[in-house]
Amino acid sequence: MPSTSGVRLSTPLGEVHVTARCDGGSTAAVSIRADGPPPLNRMPKGMRIEGGALLIVEAMLAAGAGLELSLVLRSARPMPDADPTCGEHLDCVVVSTDGMHLALAARDQEWMAAHQPDAAGYDVTLMRRGLDITAQSRTAGARITIPLALAWASGPDPLSVWYGADAILPA
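Predicted structure:
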């Protein structure tokens, strides 16, 4: 029987839905560990965000079991396609409309390999309004922890939310 867990967060651009699903008799939980802007000392000079959240997805997986995550912005407002960006160990989608910017982010494959050795086949797919993430367990009883970040700010430059998401996630 698959295990499913999820949370919804309100942002200035709409609700963000985070859903985790495990198979093979495994369990998953999504929790919000911290809410608010990151420490300013982790942001480059001149960059700021107005809000953000760190979400932690924890899964206890059977050997070879899979984990599927979805981090998606749902909004009734019409929005242009998101701007997907990768780099500095960050896979990120930035959605912008009416001078407001929202970043949805996760650490990349290289970072996960170094920090979560029990996660095999970790992959992040950047979508129009979010991220899809998949991973599998290398060993029975493996605990896999996947950090996700949201960051938002108003203004002319969406780059601040990218840096904000990076600052929110574990280094």
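Summary: The chain has a mean pLDDT of 83.
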